[in-house]
């Protein structure tokens, strides 16, 4: 078996130009002079691809902040419907007062007034919120402090956005320009400052970068920290287990798993021991939360006019998620060529948001970096983003309809249900093309230049040691990155592929 050092991509590999391989990218490049020429000196300018991607990401983030100006100036503070009709709602200023930061309360330790007894966010996100509160100048009216709190958080989240852009651009060494998919994603700019999700997204993107460099322990630590900020990064350990199983990379997976568990415990254990009631609020809130915005469960309840018990929804959603994970695992073990890590990571997170009882508009942030790595094709990415932008507008217009009293200004329930269906179908569409790439690896745009799994780290160009079904006996003409021994399920001994 070749050593990891020999199977890792080389630093001097030529970069792939999307304008030469993607018709949408080529057409869009006409705005800045057209596609890259044959004799262009790549890297001759100080504006390297990574720097360009970061600058574009910061610029788009700033545009997203500009889009929130009506709310920043007045709509957050004058009634409820205005922040919806202007589509500029954010949780951040409201929770500054509503979760006790304005009063100096300590998250998880101090009780809150009202029904929400403690802060309902994971520990690392709570720390992020608290640091922003410390950085917010005191004095002045509550409204002014809420504005400053949002601005401080926006600055911190902009740093997270820049980190995400750098990590995505550098994960696939030969395809740094794929980071523009993240930087230019309209849903990214629109939803970046709704909540604090970018912290977990940045840590997850950094973890993906570390794994692509073969640093299993760093990957695990970052995934553990990301899980301490939001629950979804934990899901990435599932597809990674299946891929390491297929490639026989058990030691690396064990290192990553232990690193994740250790990092998560290091962050959570102090709060868990010193403030157990406050610590568990996030987990009890997640279990007790009713069917909410953006999910197909909401369509069912609104169309039938009947509510569904929380326990029933939790059971069915969990069952659907487990079925989806089983299908993804089966896909990974039976595919003619081992899927790329980014492909399975995208599929499992998408399955989670699709089956969940809530699909908030900012959850699209979880998927955008993974989508850019899994399917870096502008046409498919923009189709999906168009669906998400429609939903972004749809949810605020629906909330405007429900909060505008007898005026009913906005989108009625039937229109909102259509918006939900559209953004679910957009996500399903992107899942479908990723699955097609897995089943037909010759159509995978990342592999068309001869790459195997640029985000796979030790999995990149590693031979298979365990596969199922037809993948155990590929045709002689099948293209594999590296031929190696395969174990077929149900045989009495190893069967060479």
Automatic annotation (TrEMBL):
It comes from the Bacteria. One of its GO terms (cellular component) is plasma membrane. GO terms for molecular function: hexosyltransferase activity. The keyword Membrane applies. Residues 1-20, 476-497 are annotated as: Disordered. It is a multi-pass membrane protein. Residues 8-20 have a biased composition (Basic and acidic residues). Keywords: Cell membrane, Membrane, Transferase, Transmembrane, Transmembrane helix. Its main location: membrane. Pfam families: GT87 (PF09594). InterPro entries: GT87 (IPR018584), UCP010361 (IPR016570). It is found in: Cell membrane. The chain crosses the membrane at residues 48-66, 148-169, 181-211, 217-243, 255-275, 316-334, 341-361, 381-403. The keyword Transferase applies. Belongs to the glycosyltransferase 87 family. This is DUF2029 domain-containing protein. It comes from Streptomyces tirandamycinicus.
């Amino acid at each position: 078996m070749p050593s990891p050092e020999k199977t890792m991509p080389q630093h001097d590999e030529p970069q792939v130009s999307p304008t030469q391989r993607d018709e949408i990218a080529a057409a869009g490049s006409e705005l800045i002079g057209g596609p890259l020429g044959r004799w262009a000196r790549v890297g001759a300018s100080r504006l390297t691809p990574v720097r360009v991607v970061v600058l574009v990401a910061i610029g788009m983030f700033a545009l997203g902040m500009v889009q929130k100006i009506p709310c920043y100036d007045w709509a957050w503070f004058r009634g409820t419907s205005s922040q919806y009709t202007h589509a500029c709602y954010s949780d951040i200023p409201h929770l500054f007062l509503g979760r006790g930061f304005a009063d100096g309360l300590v998250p998880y330790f101090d009780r809150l007034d009202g029904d929400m007894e403690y802060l309902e966010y994971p520990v690392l996100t709570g720390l992020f919120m608290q640091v922003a509160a410390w950085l917010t100048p005191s004095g002045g009216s509550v409204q002014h402090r809420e504005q400053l709190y949002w601005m401080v958080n926006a600055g911190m989240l902009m740093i997270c956005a820049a980190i995400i852009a750098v990590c995505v651009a550098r994960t696939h060494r030969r395809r740094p320009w794929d980071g523009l998919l993240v930087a230019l994603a309209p849903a990214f700019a629109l939803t970046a400052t709704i909540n604090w999700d970018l912290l977990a997204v940045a840590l997850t993107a950094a973890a993906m970068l570390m794994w692509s460099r073969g640093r299993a322990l760093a990957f695990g630590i970052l995934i553990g920290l990301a899980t301490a900020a939001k629950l979804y990064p934990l899901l990435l350990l599932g597809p990674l287990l299946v891929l390491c199983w297929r490639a026989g990379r058990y030691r690396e997976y064990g290192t990553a798993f232990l690193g994740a568990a250790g990092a998560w415990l290091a962050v959570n254990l102090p709060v868990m021991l010193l403030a157990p009631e406050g610590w568990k609020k996030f987990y009890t809130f997640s279990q007790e939360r009713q069917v909410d915005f953006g999910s197909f469960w909401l369509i069912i309840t609104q169309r039938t006019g009947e509510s569904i018990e929380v326990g029933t929804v939790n059971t069915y959603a969990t069952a659907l998620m487990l079925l989806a994970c089983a299908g993804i695992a089966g896909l990974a073990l039976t595919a003619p060529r081992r899927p790329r890590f980014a492909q399975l990571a995208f599929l499992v997170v998408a399955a989670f948001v699709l089956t969940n009882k809530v699909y908030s508009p900012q959850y699209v942030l979880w998927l955008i970096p993974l989508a850019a790595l899994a399917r870096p094709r502008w046409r498919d990415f923009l189709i999906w983003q168009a669906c998400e932008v429609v939903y972004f507008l749809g949810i605020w217009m629906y909330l405007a309809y429900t909060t505008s009293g007898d005026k009913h200004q906005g989108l009625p329930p039937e229109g909102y249900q259509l918006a939900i269906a559209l953004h679910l179908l957009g996500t399903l569409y992107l899942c479908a093309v990723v699955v097609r790439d897995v089943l037909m690896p010759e159509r995978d745009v990342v592999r068309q230049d001869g790459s195997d799994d640029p985000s796979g780290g030790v999995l990149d160009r590693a031979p298979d040691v365990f596969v199922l079904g037809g993948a155990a006996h590929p045709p002689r003409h099948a293209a594999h990155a590296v031929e190696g021994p395969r174990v077929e399920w149900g045989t009495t001994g190893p069967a060479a592929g």
